[in-house]
Design brief:
Elements: H1 10-16, H2 23-42, H3 47-56
Helix pairs in contact: 2-3
Length: about 60
């Protein structure tokens, strides 16, 4: 979710810690639900976000 709209600053990772290995491959799965919610609530402007997550997952 942290990368859905932007990338957190380095200070965030210093305080919070790094995610487990392989997080970049899992990111589209984690982002799909919030992208679908934004599509439903706010409309067609989020179609591209949903499509890109689905494409990343090979769907």
């Amino acid at each position: 979710m942290l990368h859905l709209f932007a990338t957190p600053p380095e200070a965030f990772w210093e305080g919070y810690g790094r995610p487990a290995a392989g997080w970049q491959q899992r990111m589209p799965v984690y982002q799909l639900w919030p992208a679908l919610v934004h599509l439903r609530l706010f409309g067609a402007g989020y179609v591209g976000m949903v499509d890109s997550r689905l494409t990343s997952l090979g769907v």
